[in-house]
């Protein structure tokens, strides 16, 4: 019927770049735990755009995890077909990662970085939903002093790490808002919630208006699983990220955050431990290294604001996309 194919990739461009080279990566690195042991700490310098990433940073389904699952197979097959698309639309901005931009520009006739989606999707001020008064609580705190913790709605923190995170927050003394569903709240150390309520140091809620919370001046760090939407929301808000990746492309994003963009820090051993949480919060909220992270992520925030403004790169790409789709 002559219909144009316009695939939209809402995840990290770095992950997509890796999926596009699955065959080459498997040929050189191999597949499975043994391949990871041998090649895990080596850079993927044979793939344009991934030279700063290690094999252990690659998304699940390429060399580790269930590489034969229906999801992994679908991604693999998709990668073979993507070069036939009319346009490829990615949830990023031009210039956020120049090596990634370079690859996609050369690989695809029409590469449209058209993000962050959550900003372009906004049609104007919407009624604020804050049933647990997170923002009024944040109003009581100094700029860049509060930790916001959320690992999304799919991730489940292992019980031992949940305890370690709670103890680390208590030991650090840093004020925090923790978005944690009620079922998981019941697994916290006995008396923890009562203690933070008494001291006023923390606030645990079953849901928080994440974009509004990240945009509050009091928030100084986002403790995150590094899901791509959360990463983009944090960058758009100018907030550094403390990384505890779990699955999928979380490891890829953690590497970008901590080593490439240098807008955050990865937890020791990629897991919550009491001392690891204390140390990381100290670094990001109080140390000179944390100040540099804030400066850097605010530079990226400025780039985002320019990209989504009228005549910015994302705005321009969105207009170009509409013309192609509508044939106008």
Automatic annotation (TrEMBL):
This is Glycosyltransferase. It holds the Pfam family UDPGT. Keywords: Glycosyltransferase, Transferase. It comes from Rhynchospora pubera. One of its GO terms (molecular function) is UDP-glycosyltransferase activity. Belongs to the UDP-glycosyltransferase family. The keyword Heme does not apply. The keyword Methyltransferase does not apply. CDD domains: GT1_Gtf-like. PROSITE patterns: UDPGT.
């Amino acid at each position: 019927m002559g219909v144009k194919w316009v695939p939209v990739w809402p995840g990290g461009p770095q992950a997509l770049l890796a999926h596009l080279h699955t065959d080459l990566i498997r040929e050189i690195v191999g597949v499975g735990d043994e391949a990871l042991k041998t090649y895990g700490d080596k850079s993927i310098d044979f793939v344009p755009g991934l030279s700063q990433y290690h094999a252990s940073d690659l998304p699940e389904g390429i060399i580790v995890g269930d590489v034969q699952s229906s999801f992994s197979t679908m991604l693999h097959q998709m990668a073979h077909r993507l070069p036939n698309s009319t346009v490829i639309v990615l949830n990023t901005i031009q210039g956020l990662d120049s090596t990634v931009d370079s690859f996609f520009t050369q690989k695809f006739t029409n590469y449209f970085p058209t993000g962050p989606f959550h900003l372009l999707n906004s049609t104007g001020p919407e009624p604020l939903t804050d049933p647990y008064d997170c923002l009024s609580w944040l109003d009581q705190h100094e700029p860049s002093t509060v930790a916001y913790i959320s690992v999304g709605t799919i991730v489940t923190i292992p019980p031992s790490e949940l305890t370690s995170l709670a103890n680390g927050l208590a030991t650090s003394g840093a004020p925090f808002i923790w978005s944690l569903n009620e079922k998981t709240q019941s697994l916290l150390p006995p008396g923890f919630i009562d203690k933070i309520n008494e001291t006023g140091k923390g606030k645990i809620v079953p849901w928080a208006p994440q974009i509004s919370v990240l945009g509050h001046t009091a928030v100084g760090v986002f403790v995150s699983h590094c899901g791509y939407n959360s990463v983009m929301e944090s960058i758009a808000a100018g907030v550094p990220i403390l990384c505890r990746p779990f699955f999928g492309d979380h490891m890829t994003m953690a590497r970008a955050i901590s080593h490439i963009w240098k807008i955050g820090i990865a937890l020791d051993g990629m897991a919550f431990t009491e001392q690891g949480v204390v140390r990381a919060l100290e670094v990001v909220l109080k140390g000179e290294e944390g100040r540099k992270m804030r400066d850097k992520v605010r530079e990226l925030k400025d780039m985002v604001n320019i990209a989504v403004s009228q005549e910015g790169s994302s705005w321009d790409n969105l207009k170009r996309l509409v013309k192609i789709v509508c044939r106008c």
